[in-house]
Every structure is written in C-alpha cells, then in structure tokens.
Amino acid sequence: MIIVFLFSLCQVEAQHCVWYGECGESEKVPGKKYNCKYTGPAVPLPSEGSDLCPACFFNLMNLFCELTCSPHQSQFMNATAFNGTNVVEVQYYVGQAFANGEFTIDATPVALCMINLLCHFFTLDVPVSGYTPMNNKTYNCTEGLEDGSGPCSCQDCAAACGPKPVPPPLPPPWTILGMDAMTVIMWISYMIFLLIFVGAVLGACLSPILVNASCCETLGARFENYLRILFSSWGSFCVRHPSVVILGSLILVVASSGGLYYMQITTDPVELWSSPTSQARQEKDYFDSHFGPFFRTAQLIITTPLNDTFLYSPYFGGSDVPFGAILDKDILHQVLDLQLDIEGLVASYEGQKVTLKDICLAPLAPYNDNCTILSVLNYFQNSHAVLDHTIGDEFYVYADFHSHFLYCVSAPASLNDTTLLHDPCLGTFGGPIFPWLAMGGYDETNYNNATALVITFPINNYLNDTARLGKALAWEKEFIKFMKNYKNPNLTIAFNAERSIEDEIDRESNSDISTIVISYAIMFVYISLALGHIHSFRRVMVDSKISLGIAGILIVLSSVSSSLGIFSYFGIPLTLIVIEVIPFLVLAVGVDNIFIIVQTYQRDERMPQEELHQQIGRILGDVAPSMFLSSFSETVAFFLGALSNMPAVRTFSLFAGLAVFIDFLLQISCFVSLLGLDARRQEGNRLDIVCCVKLPEGQETKTDSFLFRFFKKVYAPFILKEWVRPIIVAVFVGMLSFSIAVVNKVEIGLDQKLSMPDDSYVLDYFKNLTEYLHTGAPVYFVVEDGLNYSSPEGQNVVCGGVGCNNNSLVQQVYAASLIMSFTFTSSTTVAFTPSSWLDDYFDWVKPQSTCCRYYNTTGAFCNASVVNPSCVHCRPMTPSGKQRPVGDDFMRFLPMFLSDNPNVKCGKGGHAAYATAVDLYPDNTGVGATYFMTYHTILKESPDYIHALKMARNLADNITQSTNHKVFAYSVFYVFYEQYLTIAHDTALNLGASLASIFVVTTVLLGFELWSAVIVSMTIAMILVNMFGVMWLWSISLNAVSLVNLVMSCGISVEFCSHIVRAFSISVKKNRVERAEEALAHMGSSVFSGITLTKFGGILILALSKSQIFQVFYFRMFLAIVLLGATHGLIFLPVLLSYIGPSVNKAKVFASNQRYAGTEREPLLNY
After folding, report:
1. Helix or strand or coil: residue 623?
2. What is the model's pLDDT at position 108?
3. Rounded to the nearest 5°, which phi and psi values hold at 498?
4. In this model, does residue 1025 exceed pLDDT 90?
5. What would be the CATH architecture of the domain defined by 215-262+532-694?
6. pLDDT one-digit tens code per residue, 505-519
7. Are strands 2-6 and 86-95 parallel, antiparallel or unpaired?
8. What is the pLDDT of residue 137?
9. How many other CB atoms are found less than 10 A from the CB of residue 316?
10. Can you give the residue ranges of the SSD domain (predicted)?
11. What average pLDDT is seen over the chain?
12. Which pLDDT score, from 0 to 100, does residue 496 have?
C-alpha cells in the first residue's frame, strides 16, 4: 500500500468501494490474506468504540476505516495492482490538514505506537492526480467528541497535563564575596578571637584573687573527702583480703559471662541499621505481609573486549542501524550458552538436588513453569534456533535477528514481531523484557548501541521458611562458584548474587582476625612491659610487672565478656561493631586507669608507721575519685547514646556503657588486690612470673621513671612558657575554626564498595553497575487497605486513563517521570510511568476486548484462547457495558483478571504482572492493599540513594494528600538509607546528650566545681568538632559506623581531659601556670603512657588490613581519636587551664594542709 499526501483537491466521478473482504493467501506474509477487488457500494459494519484516548482513537480509526471500509473509497483510493481478484497495491490520498491533525495532535505514546505500527506497512510514493484526498475532521486530544466522550487523559495527551513539571531550582551556594560563606565567617571569627585574646593576655591580670572559701567550695571539699575515705577504706580491705576479693570477682565474672552461652550475633543488615519502629521498617513489614518479601536476584553484567561494530541495512528500506560488538550474533550465542549453563546448575541442600526451577520466580506457574530471566536472549526465546532464524533467499536477507531485536526493544510485550519472522518478543516466562533492564551502556533509547548485556535471575524470597531459603542460598553458592571458574576470552563478566555481600563481609571479617589479633598482641606486650619501673639491670625481673599487666588485661577482657554475657541473658543480640570496637574502647579506658594506679604507687613514698595496705588504700583514695569521674561520665554518656533509633548505635552504647563500669569496679577491687600481692612480691625481692625465685637483698636507690622526669623537667615547663602558650591557643583555635567551617561538608552515607575486601569480585560488579546500567531499583507506590476501588471516586484517585483525576496516583507518578534530567539535584528519580493494574483491568474487562469471557453455564472464567460457544463476554456491548465496572461487577471479574495468563488472543491478562500486586480480601469480597510499580533512575552513590528515598517519599506524601488516602513508597534499599535522612540530627542529639551528661557528672564528682566541668566539656566538644574536620580531610563519611566511633571518641576524650583537670583542681600551687605544670607533670605521663602509646602501636597495624572499611572507619578514625585526644589533653588543655582554669579551692587547700601536717611531702607529688 502507498499513502500519498496531496495538497490540492481533485474530483472523481464515482463514489464506491475499491476492495472488500479477504481473498487469496499473501505470498510475502504467510498467514495473511489479500483484500478482494470490489467496486460495489459499501457494506454496513457494526460500531465499536474504545475507552482509550477518545480523540486520538477517533482520528486513528478515521484514517484506518476510511482506508478499509469507506463508502467513498473511489474518491481518494486507487487500486493499482492485482493478482487475479486479489488487490496487491493501492494508492491512498490523504490531505495535508488531516495529516497535520493526525500526526501532531496524536503525538502521544499510545497514538505514536499505533501510527508507527501502521507505518510499518506503508511506504510513501509520488502522488497521483485525479483523486480528492481524504481530509476528514480531526479532534484535538483536549476536546470531547460529539458522542459525549471526554477529552484524553494526561498520559495519552500531553496538552491535557498542563505545563510540564519542572523541578524547583537549586538554592544557590551560600557565598560571601564569591567565597564559601562558612569559610569567610570562620576566618573573620578567628581573626577577631586572636585580637581579643592578645589584648586580654597583654592587658588583663589573670591571677586568682584569694578570698575565703565559698559554700560550694566547702561542700565540694567535703564530698571529695568522703570519696577519699570511702575508696581508701575499700582499697585497704582489698589488699588485706586478696583471696576473698579475687575469688568474689572471679565468681561474678564467670556468672556474668555465662550468658555468652545464649549469645546471638546479628548479621542481618536490616536488623543492624533499621529500627523496628522506623518508618522504612514498618513500611517494609507492611509490604512483606501483604505482597510477600522482595525477590532475591543473581545478576550478570557482560561486556566484551572486542571493539567491532557493524551496520545493519534493513531490506525494506530505512537508515542503516549501527550495532555494538556485544550484539554480534556470535557473541550472543556465547552469552546464551552461558545463560543455559547457569539454568542447568545443580546445587545440593541437605541431600536434595536444587535447580534454578526449584527456586526461581515463575509468575505463570503452574501453567508455565519457565523461570523469569530478564535477558536479551529471551527476545529469542532463549533458543539458538530462534536466534539463527532468518527469512530470505539466495540474494537477500529480508529479516533476521537484527530486525527482530529492533522490533522487540520497541514492543517487548509483542507476541508477533510483524516482520517476516513473526517470532514473539514476549519472554518464555510470559512477561516482557524491558530493554532498559536487559542492556546497558547505550545512549538515550538507542539500544542497538548497547555496550553491555544484563542478565537477571529473580529468585523467590522467603520470610519464615528456612528450608526453602536454604535451597535458594545453596543454589546461589553454586552460581557464585560456577562464575568464579568461568572463562571466556570474548566475554568480561561482573556478577553478583543476593548472598554475595554478606559472604564477602564474612570472608573479610575472617581475614581481619589475624590483623586484629596482632593489633591487640602489640598492645598487650606494651602494657605488660611498660607497667614496670626498672631501677637497675640486676632487678629487671623483680621490678617488672608483666604478670600484673597480664592480669590487668584479663580484667579488661573480663569486663567485656561480663557485659556481653549480661545482655545475652536478656536476649539482646550482639553485632560485629560491638565485637570489634568495644574491646578497643574498654582497653583504652581500663589501661589508662591501670597506669594511673600503678605509676602513682611507684612514685609514692610510704609514710612512717604506714603498712602496705594503708599505703595502697591511701593511694586509691587519691586516684579513685578521678577514675570514678572518668568511668562514670563515660558510662552515663554511653547509656544516653542508647536512646538512638539506630540499632547498631543503640546496641553498642548499651554494651559499652556496662563494660566500662564493670571494668572500673574490677579495677578498684580485683586489680587493687593483685597490686597488693605484686607489691609484696617486689618487696620480698621475688622474681616476676617465677615468684618462687628470690634475689638476695641489696641496697637499691628509688628513682622516677624517664617518662615522668621528661614530663616534669622538660615537657610541662616548655609548653607553659609565656611565648609558647599564645601560639598553642592560636593553633588549636585555628584548627577549631577550620573544622567548624567544613563540618557541613562532611558527606553523609556509606559507599557500599568500602564494605568489600580489596580483592572481592563484588567490587567489579559495583563498578559495572555504576558504569553501564540506566535503571535503578524498582519502587512500589503502595496504597494501603481501605480504598473503595468499586466506586468511581475511588478509581479516579488512582487510575491514569480517560476520566481519571489529573492528580491521581498514576498521573502524579507519570508527571514525575517526565522530569528526565539525570542530574542528581534536579531528577525526581522516577524513571517510568507506573504499571497500573487498575487501568489494565479496565482494558481487559471492556466488551470490545476478547479477554474477559466466562462460561454462561457455570460462570467460571473462560480464557481468550478457548474456542467454546458457551463462552460469552463479561459485559454487554451497550453504553453502560462499555463503562468501567463498578460495584459488584468490579469484584466479580477482578479475580478472573488476576488469574488470566497472557496469550496471543489477549495480552492483557494480569496473572504474570499483577498476581502479587493486589491483596484481595478472603472469598474475593473486596480489594485490600495494592501497589503500582515503576523504577528509580540509575542510582550510583550514597547521595543518589538518599535523594531517591527523599523524593519518593515527597511524591507519596503529595499523592496521599490528593487522594485523601495513605500511600507510601517502598523500595528494597529504603531500610538501609533511611538512617541518613536524620543522621545529622541523630549525631547532634547523641553527642549533645553525651556532653551534657559528662558536664553534669563532672560537676558533681569534681566537688561541684562548675567551671572545671565547663572546661572539660568544652575541650571534649573541641575534640569532637575537630573529628569532623579530620573526617572531611580524610574522606570519612558520616554513617552509623562513624557515629559509633564519634560516641566512643567522646568517652575516650574524658580519659584525656578529666584526670588533668582534677589534678589541676586539687593543686595548691600559687598560680594557674604552676598548677597546670604540676598537673601535667604528674598526670600527663600516666595518660600518655596509658592511652596514647598503648593505642598507637595497635592502631598502626589496622592500616595493614585488607578491609577497606577497617582502613577508613577504624584505622583512620581511631588514629584521629588518639591523636586529637592526646594533643588536646596534653597540650591545649594545660595551656587553657593556665589562662582560665578554676581558682584554687580554699577548702581543699585547708583540708590538704591538715591531712599532711607534719610531713615534708607535697600533696600532689603523692598523688
């Protein structure tokens, strides 16, 4: 046939038909027939309509009906070629006005699809004069028809949608004079601070004014004295009765650790990162309970190292089409071989054989048990023979896999490609393979330019069926093993299974065990050796404290096991974060306290008439309040951190808080008893470890340790020099200003690549996923139970066809998909119009369709492929029958639609596409929850996923408001990324609560010295803010793992600061500088050797880990915590105290003078 467009009117003499009816078989298209030559009058036809876009359908039918059955055919048609009575060719003259109306007004997805289908049969030729062109009236898609039909819907008519949605413009970056505003503000603030600081240093007198003790000072001194007496008495008891204390401690530890028998370790990512009460978790549970859990997947992304491209020249004319190397037929055959090999894999589970068919998603089962395989090869029915199918002769190829491919990517649900092949495009499983899911690396919609093939095997998931889930896991394991061993020089394959990430994390954890063991071993060796203070080479084994150090380490580990056991009794599961981080934390806190106790004892001189138990009791009375201050502050801070909504943070905080407090209790009891035993051993000149061996008596001179002498004679005087102190303040305030300027620039999220080992095959998959794929994860817009779909009002707020509301669910999601910018900041992240079971049901049930039929004898459903005279249409061919079904009719036929399998006679059957999308009430009495599925745009990095979640929720909220019914968006990744919507708020809340608790506890335990508590809290706050600066510099993102580390850094910072501040507060030197120097000399060396050196060696080993997450979130953050804590506690804090430290507590000075009356010893030196 030839369509000819004419621009002038021509007259003809007669008005009659030129053809009618069907005659002989077509020679070119098997199965099709020619029209018969006929010049008589027109034969009347029954009228039928459509509930698609009325104007577009009318225009299209006008074009087609005038061609096939107009009573005036002879005016604009000319039969030009015959084969007997068969009409082989006609000329069809169409006027320009009609052509303009047809091809411009109807330029909608539905109309273009139909017009393109017709144009496949028509070719343009030179017009022939003598005929009047057909120039019937056309209707605009925004116009109603004369029969009362309304205008088209938004999906069918862009003009009916109103203005195209445009995303709001991005807010411009906050700048001042073209520079980042925060940077400018902090620079100005820093310069102002320096001016004020210099002026204050030069012009102000910062020395304390001595006055009589205030009420608070007296109260603080009494509280301090009470704690001293309490801990002194307890320490003396522990040394006098070591067996009772040690045995009692051992019994309590064993009883507490017994809970480890009930220990459960949570590895489920959902349980780790999503609270059961969170919105995403509740929505996931709702989705799973109504529609079943989201399926598992095994996926291949296949590329080829070959660079050959080739051109396909269609036989029937048209431009040449370039094809990428991955679509070469030989390559496709190799890929199909691989796909068939995977389909044939056999795994073993508990003695049973497991194949893909046992676990795969088969939507048409049991009628069709073929697995869903989303692959380009499914266009060819996963068959080598269909892939090789060609039509041609010895000279030309008329149709082959090229033409079939080009047709299928534009009509993937077709059961007949309309080429000479007449092969189906529909997959063997009964559903379409959308090209954007099966290919990657193409531009726009030119799928022939694809550089990658994507093969996806959806696998059924199971909520509470461990046996069937075990089969799926077994097959996935076999799949991974097969792919690791697969080799083909022409194919480069990245692959992933549902279990891959968890498997790789487990492998990573096992490989890191050696790294962690070496790290802790280094710290243990250091502690054991550093506790001893060797006076001479002769007494090396006497003065060493290896056994005491090992005992101290065992106490630390016992506190950890006790904490784990106690919570295990209560059924609280552990997480990997707890196991990996808490020993590090408790070791930092515990070892610091051990060094303080031991080194204070080593520096102490026993008073005349004082026994060992009294000496150790007195020492414990001096140092235990400081230990209690730090430990109790940390415990309260951690327990407040348990208020977090994130399970991983909450669990860590609970376990850490209890472990720190148990460690403190064991140190002031069991460790003190062990210290007493070790002191007796040392006084008796017995060797360490081999305590039965005794050295002969000898005169030994007691000396201070090198580290203590260095801090007292060199370090402390240097940093407190008049010219050094201002430099230190300027540097640290500069660091703080920088960190504040970049705190809002720290990236939020967790790059999933960091969770994988360096040598993981999953990294290649992530890389290819980002590089090639064009479509993201499926997203479901779930309409909760309660909407009345049987009423027109309920239907109109959801559907997307004629008569539906312009702000219905389908219309709003469609409008969101029109914003096709793939720029992160402007995309709505919705890629396509949603699949609508309701609109497809309306098409399926209409009387013009052959789909909805039932046996008039039984009322049972009759499939369209059944030939039986007792099968009748569901609805009559009447005006009311052509309307949407409502009331009882709606529910009568809906179950039939949901059970109907697509076939050649009816492709609209809803079984494959919507069987799980509609949750019917028992006995099919109504519709409960339903979903409408579409896809996200491609999501590459964490910010993309967070943005997609945010935009989908905004869209769902808008739909909820317009429909007045609850609608939410659900995708499988939402439970993992929801935490990032509020993580900035959660971080501020957790750290703020921790700082507040530290302030309160410090205020009380320092004897109600408010200003001391302010200084401690301010220094810890500086450390935390500087941690954010390090995170920005070192590319550490803010997520649950880094938040745990920040909470931990808050606790460790207490150790760096509280001991120094307490030593300063009880010093009786005459001015702040001398008091700061004394506090730093006596406490600084213990803090430095107890935390900084202990941790430094262990942390450096973590850099050797194969795990990227260890390198980033443990090595980098732990190193930053120790370095920032040490520099602030041992450099900045003493200088700060020398300027604005609290005045001497006169009541404490008086009490100290009375306590040491008659001695020549300085109180702080004994401390």
Report:
1. helix
2. 42
3. -60, -35
4. yes
5. Up-down Bundle (1.20)
6. 777 766 666 777 777
7. parallel
8. 80
9. 11
10. 512-677
11. 81
12. 94
User: Under 8 Å CB-to-CB from 507, ≥6 apart: which residues?
Assistant: 757, 760
Amino acid at 579: I
Range 414-423 burial, b when 16+ CB lie within 10 A, else e: bbebebbbbb
Residue with more model confidence, 538 or 865: 865
How far are the Cα atoms of 628, 1010, 1050, 1148, 1152 from residue 222, in angstroms, in the given order? 17, 16, 29, 8, 12
- Tokens representing 637 are 């801070």
| Contacts of 75 by beta carbon, 8 Å cutoff, 6+ apart | 12, 15, 131, 132, 134
**Maximal CA-CA distance, the chain:** 141
695-738 residue pLDDT tens? 666 555 566 677 788 888 888 899 988 889 999 999 999 999 99
For the whole prediction, is pTM greater than 0.70?
yes
How many residues would you count in the chain?
1167
The answer, yes or no, to whether residue 126 has pLDDT greater than 60, is no
The SS3 of residue 302 is strand
Spatial CB neighbours of 384, under 8 Å, sequence gap ≥ 6 = 333, 336
Domains 215-262+532-694 and 705-745+982-1166 share a fold: yes
20 SS3 class = strand
Q: What integer pLDDT is reported at residue 824 of this predicted model?
A: 38
User: Contact at 8 Å (CB) between 147 and 808?
Assistant: no
Indicate the residue type of 244.
V
Q: Is the pLDDT of residue 6 over 70?
A: no
Q: Token digits for 880?
A: 């009311």
Give the Å distances, CA to CA, from 255 to 124, 249, 252, 304, 1017.
Answer: 91, 10, 5, 62, 37
* N-term to C-term CA, the chain: 107
Is 56:156 a contact under the CB 8 Å cutoff? yes
Q: What's the average model confidence in pLDDT over 739-761?
A: 86
* Residues 326-344, mean pLDDT to the nearest whole number: 95
Query: Could you tell me the residue ranges of all domains in the chain?
Result: 19-160, 215-262+532-694, 268-294+779-821+922-937+941-980, 295-503, 705-745+982-1166, 836-916
pLDDT at 1015: 92
DSSP 459-497: E---SS-HHHHHHHHHHHHHHHHHHHH---TT-EEEEEE
10 Å CB burial of residue 107 (0-12, 13-18, 19+) is: middle
C-alpha 88/C-alpha 34 separation (Å) is 7
Q: Which of 833, 811, 830, 810 minimizes the C-alpha distance to 820?
A: 830
Fold classification of 705-745+982-1166 is: Multidrug efflux transporter AcrB transmembrane fold (1.20.1640)
Q: What DSSP line would sit under 914-951, residue for residue?
A: HTTTEEEPGGG-SEEEEEEEEEEEP--SHHHHHHHHHH
Tracing tokens 């039939």 back to the chain, one arrives at 896
In three-state secondary structure terms, 33 is: strand
Give pLDDT, residue 958: 92
DSSP 873-916: ESS-SSTTTTSPP-HHHHHHHHHHHHHPPP-SS-TT-SHHHHTT
Where are any strands of DSSP class E within 539-593? 574-575
Name 141's Cβ contacts closer than 8 Å, sequence gap at least 6.
53, 55, 56, 105, 106, 108, 151, 152, 156, 157, 159, 160
Per DSSP, helices labelled H in 604-759 are 612-641, 647-666, 672-683, 706-710, 716-719, 724-742
Instruction: Kindly state the average pLDDT of the residues 136-140.
Output: 80
Is residue 116's pLDDT more than 60?
no
Q: Which residues contact 1020 (CB under 8 A, 6 or more apart)?
A: 995, 998, 1050, 1053, 1054, 1057
| Phi, psi (deg, nearest 5) at residue 80 | -110, -15
> Does residue 445 have a pLDDT over 80?
yes
Helix, strand, coil percentages, rounded to 5, for the chain: 55, 10, 35
